[in-house]
Design a protein that fits this description.
The chain is α+β, with helices and mostly antiparallel strands. It has a single domain, classed as GTP cyclohydrolase I, C-terminal domain/NADPH-dependent 7-cyano-7-deazaguanine reductase, N-terminal domain (GTP Cyclohydrolase I, domain 2, 2-Layer Sandwich), CATH 3.30.1130. It is 32% helix and 31% strand. The chain is built from four helices and four strands; from the N terminus they run βαβαααββ.
C-alpha cells in the first residue's frame, strides 16, 4: 500500500477534561499517514483519483479546532473518520500530540496514535 503523510498540522482546540482546558484552549498537533493505492492517480495524472492533501489538511485542522471532546482518543477517532471519508483512503494512522497537557512534571509531549481502516 502506498502512503501519503501530513505531519505537524496545528490548531487551537478546547479539548480536555479540566475546566481550564475548555476555557483557555491549547495547541494540538496532528500527524496523519494515509494508506491508499496511488497507481490510478499516477496512471491518469488525475487529482480526483487520489487525496487532495491541501483539502485534507484543512479538514483535519477543522476537526481539531471544532467541537470539543474530553479525550484525545475521541479527537483521534474524529480525525481518522474524516480521513476515511475520502474515497481513495483505505486506512489512516493518526497521531494527536498534546504538548501543553496539564502535567505537573517536565515532559516533551503526550501523544495517542490510532490506526483505522475501512470495514
Amino acid at each position: 500500500m502506498d502512503r501519503i503523510a501530513l505531519r505537524g498540522l496545528r490548531g487551537r482546540g478546547f479539548h480536555g477534561v479540566l475546566p481550564r482546558e475548555r476555557e483557555e484552549g491549547q495547541t494540538f498537533v496532528v500527524d496523519v499517514v494515509l494508506g491508499l493505492d496511488t497507481r490510478p492517480a499516477a496512471a491518469s495524472d488525475d487529482l480526483a483519483r487520489t487525496v487532495d492533501y491541501g483539502v485534507l489538511a484543512e479538514q483535519v485542522t477543522a476537526v481539531v479546532t471544532g467541537e470539543p471532546c474530553d479525550l484525545l482518543e475521541t479527537l483521534a477517532q474524529r480525525v481518522a473518520d474524516r480521513c476515511l471519508a475520502h474515497e481513495a483512503v483505505i486506512e489512516a494512522e493518526v497521531t494527536v500530540h498534546k504538548p501543553e497537557a496539564p502535567i505537573t512534571v517536565p515532559f516533551d509531549d503526550v501523544t495517542i496514535t490510532i490506526k483505522r481502516s475501512r470495514a
